[in-house]
Specification:
Layout lengths: L20 H26 L3 H30 L4 H14 L3 H33 L5 E6 L2 E6 L8 E4 L9 E5 L2 E4 L1 H4 L5 E3 L4 E2 L4 E2 L4 E5 L7 H14 L3 H24 L2 H5 L4 H14 L3 H4 L3 H13 L2 E3 L2 H6 L5 E5 H5 E12 L5 H12 L5 H13 L9 E5 L3 E6 L2 E6 L6 H5 L2 H9 L3 E7 L2 E12 L3 H10 L3 E5 L4 H11 L3 E3 L4 H14 L3 E5 L5 H6 L2 E5 L4 H6 L2 E3 L5 H36 L5 H20 L5
Parallel strand pairs: 11-18, 11-20, 18-19, 20-21, 21-22
Antiparallel strand pairs: 1-2, 3-9, 4-7, 4-9, 5-6, 5-8, 10-22, 12-17, 13-14, 14-15, 15-16, 16-17
Helix pairs in contact: 1-2, 1-4, 2-3, 2-4, 3-4, 3-9, 4-6, 4-11, 4-24, 7-9, 9-23, 9-24, 11-23, 11-24, 14-15, 18-23, 23-24
Protein name: Cd2+/Zn2+-exporting ATPase
Membrane topology: Multi-pass membrane protein
Keywords: ATP-binding, Cell membrane, Ion transport, Magnesium, Membrane, Metal-binding, Nucleotide-binding, Phosphoprotein, Translocase, Transmembrane, Transmembrane helix, Transport
Length: 638
């Protein structure tokens, strides 16, 4: 049966915020009432109360068939095309005309029941969206000149200051101006443990402020928050249809016309050609009208697609449309950005080496005291590492000079300290533990040196740590026969080290953004379907040129908007899960199509051979539709 898988928003809700009983269960209730009336009508007909029995059947027609008849008529007027609903309506009316009230009512009942199951599928998909929308408050407390004022979210602008108290949900994306707290970000990032936040930390709409009051400067209006992007992506996925679904809908229009033409011929040709009676001729025509309807075929894709999209949304995989979900099953090669995708994107201290007579704690204290005034990412990582190990308050340097491209020079306790890369120290750094520094370079680590008036004090090795799940995720993709490639702008040594650690099959180092596009295009020439995974602005061109673009949920807005699939929990293992989900969905769709076509052919042949009665035709045809829908619903649990 035809049902547009279009969900413009969450189910309509009354003022109390909960969907009404009729919205959620109206179709199923009507189908059940129709079934009860059929049983009553059958009993009355067998007790010689035929008038009352027919009356009960008529009520079953009206209650069970109203929604589908309304939908079919409205769609026919709108599209100027006959549809499956009209075929069923005509078949039910035809059955009543020749006195088969029970059969016609059964047709309406089972048709209504299958429609209710399809609506259930859509409602399940909508409830995923509704549950997301309920996480965001409708208003927030804004501070105006020190006074608190409750304001609805659409009226809050970028730069406004919000007061968020313990236990409240964060209403908008922003940066903490004062206070510190822990934020439960499970709804956005999937982190099980609340994350500590302090001045300067970012907070996201839909997360929960656990234990401290904070003031937050709004960085994005309601329509641009990460939370709203999640909702928009789910809506897009529900609104767009896969190629298979579009083909079936086009096929349906032609098929319905062909069925009506054949049924019209069936109403009189067998009488003259096969010597059937007029009653038998009309009866067989009505059975043909029922069994030849492509209800199960039309329902073969939509419930399965919606179920898979809903399952993905619940598990942090957002598909922007059924097209990308369907295409993912054919993935042959996948290219990964390195920084922020395979790795966490922030360098971490891995090794500390000092000269003799200098303790590690003393060395780190000196370096951090100077580096804390630098905005360089390496300097910030070193300071964070030191502060996690040393409780003593860092000292303020007497003088500080930034040397762009090399490092910093600071004066501490009247002694000049130079901190920076190897080239900043000429031959001295090359002579300090050369074998060890070479080993660090081979492992893809960046080395920072420090020097006082006696020479090199020590060196600190830092590395962009790979995501914990990256190696396993890549291994699963390799097992699935999908070629894995890493594209990075880093040096050859770093790229080699990371690729070995992640088990990536191949890597290409020194890639500029435009070169990533070139390599993606080259992969597309070798493979039918290629995906690109990235998180940054520089990845957006490659994401756009790949057959399937996959963005990390914490990526830039440009990456999120360009990608076809978003991993909201930044978990690379979800890629393999999405591939398996796509393969399973496509398998179920194929099962449904083969099964539905086989049933239609079997019923049509049985009807022409006069083996099939109308009740069995109704049960066989509509029963197959219900089975197809239930098969698609299996994807809700994958």
């Amino acid at each position: 049966m035809e049902r547009e898988a279009v969900v413009q928003s969450a189910p309509q809700q009354p003022m109390n915020g909960r969907p009404s009983f009729l919205v959620l269960h109206g179709e199923m209730t009507a189908a059940i009432v129709s079934g009860i009336l059929i049983v009553i009508g059958w009993v009355l007909m067998n007790q010689d109360y035929s008038e009352f029995g027919i009356g009960s059947f008529i009520l079953a027609y009206v209650i069970g068939g109203f929604a589908k008849a309304k939908e079919g008529i409205e769609e026919t007027i709108k599209e100027k095309e006959l549809n499956v609903e009209m075929l069923m309506l005509l078949a039910a009316i035809g059955s009543a005309i020749i006195g088969y009230w029970l059969e016609g009512a059964l047709l309406i009942f089972i048709f209504a029941l299958s429609g209710a199951l399809e609506t259930y599928t859509m409602n399940r998909s909508e409830r995923e969206l509704t549950s997301l929308m309920e996480l965001q408050p409708e208003e927030a407390t804004v501070l105006y000149e020190g006074k608190e004022k409750t304001v609805s979210l659409p009226n809050i602008k970028k730069g406004d200051i919000l007061l968020i108290k313990p236990g409240e949900r964060v209403p908008l994306d922003g940066t903490i101006l004062s206070g510190q707290t822990s934020i439960d970000q499970a709804a956005i990032t999937g982190e099980a443990v609340p994350v500590f936040k302090e001045i300067g930390s970012e907070v996201y709409a839909g997360t929960v402020n656990v234990n401290g009051a904070v003031t937050v400067e709004v960085t994005k209006p309601a329509k641009d928050t990460l939370f709203q992007k999640i909702i928009t992506l789910v809506q897009q996925a529900q609104n767009e249809k896969s190629p298979s679904q579009l083909f079936i809908e086009k096929f349906e229009s032609v098929y319905v016309k062909a069925v009506l033409i054949i049924v019209a011929l069936m109403m009189f040709l067998p009488h003259f050609l096969l010597d059937w009676s007029w009653t038998e001729t009309f009866y067989r025509a009505m059975i043909l009208l029922v069994v030849a309807s492509p209800c199960a075929l039309v329902a073969a894709i939509t419930p399965a697609s919606l179920s898979a999209i809903s399952y993905g949304a619940r598990h942090g995989i957002l598909f922007k449309s059924g097209l990308h979900l369907e295409r993912l099953a054919h993935l042959e090669a996948i290219a990964f950005d390195k920084t922020g995708t395979l790795t966490k994107g922030t360098p971490a201290v891995t090794d500390v080496v000092t000269r003799e007579a200098v303790s590690e704690e003393e060395f780190l204290y000196i370096v951090a005291s100077i580096e804390r005034y630098s905005h360089h990412p390496l300097a910030q990582s070193i300071v964070q590492h030191v502060q996690s190990k040393i409780t003593k308050e860092l000292k303020q340097p007497e003088q500080l000079e930034d040397v762009p491209g090399f490092g910093v020079i600071g004066t501490l306790n009247n002694q000049e300290i130079k901190i920076g890369k190897r080239e900043f120290f000429e031959k001295e750094a090359h002579a300090f533990r050369p074998n060890l520094s070479e080993s660090f370079a081979t492992e893809g680590k960046t080395v920072v040196y420090a020097k006082d008036d006696q020479g090199i004090i020590g060196m600190i090795a830092l590395k962009d740590i790979i995501r914990p799940e990256a190696k396993e995720a890549i291994s699963v993709l390799n097992e699935l026969g999908i070629k894995t490639v890493m594209l990075t702008g880093d040096s050859e040594k770093t790229a080699s080290a990371i690729s070995k650690e992640c088990s990536v099959e191949n890597y290409i180092a020194g890639c500029l953004p435009e070169e990533k596009v070139t390599h993606v295009k080259a992969l597309k020439q070798e493979h039918e379907t290629v995906a690109m995974v990235g998180d940054g602005i520089n990845d957006a061109p490659a994401l756009a040129h790949a057959n399937i673009g996959i963005a990390m949920g914490e990526g830039t807005d440009v990456a999120l908007e360009t990608a076809d699939i978003v991993l909201m929990k930044n978990n690379l293992s979800k890629i393999a899960q999405a591939v398996k989900l796509s393969k399973k969905m496509n398998a179920i769709v194929k099962q449904n199509i083969i099964f539905s076509i086989s049933i239609i052919v079997l019923l049509i042949c049985s009807n022409f051979l006069q083996f099939l009665d109308l009740p069995l035709g109704v049960i066989g045809h509509e029963g197959s539709t219900i089975l197809v829908i239930l098969n698609g619903l299996r994807l809700l649990k994958n």
